[in-house]
Amino acid sequence: QVNLVESGGGSVQAGGSLTLSCKASGYYSTFCMGWFRQTPGNEREGVAHIEGNSKTTYIESVKGRFTISRDNAKATLYLQMDNLKPEDAAMYYCAAKVLCRNEYQFWGQGTQVTVSS
């Protein structure tokens, strides 16, 4: 069983930065991992993904501002968020899956990000 615990959320002004962390247990460096976000009344959307070989993908709205990375020695996933915008405010979740072609299997409890204009 994989357990994921996010941290690093908080409140910032527009243009500010935050770094989210996701500590994993029962983790393997080959796992695909990702960050998702959700606002009330909306579906959860995938923000950034990283494969075991460190290949990354991002949604268009965060390209050039967010950076996903992983430290396999620490079993930790990160999301560096720069130049934050009010529309980035959401509950952020990390997720993991054994095989990249499958749906995400494991989810954290979320960490809240608030961005004021």
Main pleated-sheet profile = 7 strands, mixed
Share of helix, binned: under 10%
Report how far the terminal alpha carbons are from each other.
Answer: 40 Å
Tell me, briefly, the overall form: globular
Strand content: over 45%
How large is the count of helical segments?
A: 0
Secondary structure category: mainly beta
Q: Compute the average pLDDT.
A: 96
What report would you give on this structure?
There is one protein chain. This protein is mainly beta. It is 0% helix and 52% strand. The chain has no helices and eleven strands. The strands form two sheets. Strands 2, 4, 5, 6, 9, 10 and 11 form a seven-stranded mixed sheet that branches. A hairpin with a 5-residue loop joins strand 5 and strand 6. It is globular, with a radius of gyration of 13 Å. The termini are far apart.
Quick gist of this model?
This protein is 0% helix and 52% strand. With 117 residues, the protein is mainly beta.
Features:
0% helix, 11 strands, single chain, mainly beta, 117 residues, 7-stranded mixed β-sheet, 4-stranded antiparallel β-sheet
Provide the fold topology:
Blueprint: E1 3-7, E2 10-13, E3 18-25, E4 32-38, E5 45-50, E6 56-58, E7 66-71, E8 76-81, E9 90-97, E10 106-107, E11 111-116
Parallel strand pairs: 2-11
Antiparallel strand pairs: 1-3, 3-8, 4-5, 4-9, 5-6, 7-8, 9-10, 9-11
